[in-house]
Here is the input.
Amino acid sequence: MKSIRVSVSAAVVAASVILIPPTQAAMLTALSSFGGGDGWLAPGDRTYLANDNNQRGLAYNPTTGHVLLVNRTGGLSVNVMDGATGADLGALTGVGTLTGGTFAGSMIGVAGDGAVYVANLTVNSTTSPFKIYRWANETSASPTVAFSGNPLAGSRIGDTLDALGSGTDTLLVAGYGSTPVVAGNNSFAMFSTADGSNYASTHISVGTTPPNAGDFRLGITFLDSDTVIGKQSSISLGGRVVDVTGAAGTLNTSFALSAAATTPMDYAIVGGVPLLAAVNTAADGQSMVWVYDMTNPATPTGETWWMKC
Here is the structure.
């Protein structure tokens, strides 16, 4: 099981209001220092925080305490912010070398050693390869191509990305979309490395329904090195938990969340409690981040734990 993880920490950093059951009140605390004292950054506070849908990738760097954001408004950038204050710390260099896909850069993950991974979005990995770029750290002059290929022929991939581990133990995961319709798109691809820099893909085959096509498209996170959680907004039930052995996946359980539209997600163990944070993406979601106790993945609890960003 993991310790502190990426987007849960970023969500806590960005929260302006947090309500938690009294027994857990000391575990999570909103940082009032973030965003200049009001606890959050709003669209328009920065040129790369526009009121559009061009900011999709967000990650927390555990080695620097920085929040990294992939932005496509005004051109592609990967912007860096102080995790405690939200102060603008500049951007990663070499982003101009990212090419290909519908979006050359879309999602982001940071490994435990501070290596930064940015993936493109391709709507057909056969005609336009899925790419993952790697910065060894935030000060690297330019990224290398960690992966370029076709994990599942003809699939849409790159709407989600997560990272776990460090060095040669780093694992990455990305979910497939439901369109185009291709066999196997009810699952995800995992990426492993022998040298810490170059990655090979493994299509994880889940031979049951559910999961349904695209169930890992809009939300994906590692629970541990051989367990992946995924979700898309159309699943009224909630999410899927899949155990991985080699290239085979087995549905462990499905679970329900408070709102069907809670999709982007990340997992962490905080204060000894396994937590899942999920963002409500509905039009009336009011920028809510819901935090659930995942002690039993089949029945997440604590839907009253919420943060309004």
